[in-house]
Amino acid sequence: MKLPNFTEFEPFKQLRLSMGARKAGHFELFNPDKHLTGKERSELDQQGKLLPLHRLKYYADTTWGLKNTRVAIYLESASDYHLAQCKVTQAWEVNTSVWVSTRRTGNLPLGAHLASSRQVCADCLQLLNYKGFDLQKNRKIAYSKNLIQNFSREEFFRIYTLYPVQGLAEKLA
Ligand SMILES: [Zn+2]
After folding, report:
1. How far does the centroid of ligand 1 lie from the alpha carbon of residue 87, in Å?
2. Helices (H), 67-111
């Protein structure tokens, strides 16, 4: 008996693509310990989440993560937010409650009904040398200050892919 060849069967090809499988038999099982669910992702975007610092991942490129997603983190009472493991965030205790969000535009959420206008942390951009950011070099000060004023999280999360973050070793906290 000859079995039909489904490798080129269009509906199956589409299904494999939508699962992120590059070839037949290649796909990653959903693991809720490592992957954010759709509900978690929408919550992080819309409301943010208050979590103890130790729940976050210290990605090796010095950005912050939750499972397989990069995040912005901030303290409720502060006027800034962080995208990297700068000296400010390194000084926080591991049990510190921090707001975590993936929102790319506008004010960062503090729950379902609140949001706050905040500025990106200069220490974070310095640590990442983001787009050549450097407040320690005289010739770059004006450029770097301008970069803070016009900072776009949307652009940041394109350069440092928001989701999914794969194959990035974690530093030990
Ligand atoms: Zn910072």
Report:
1. 7
2. 87-90
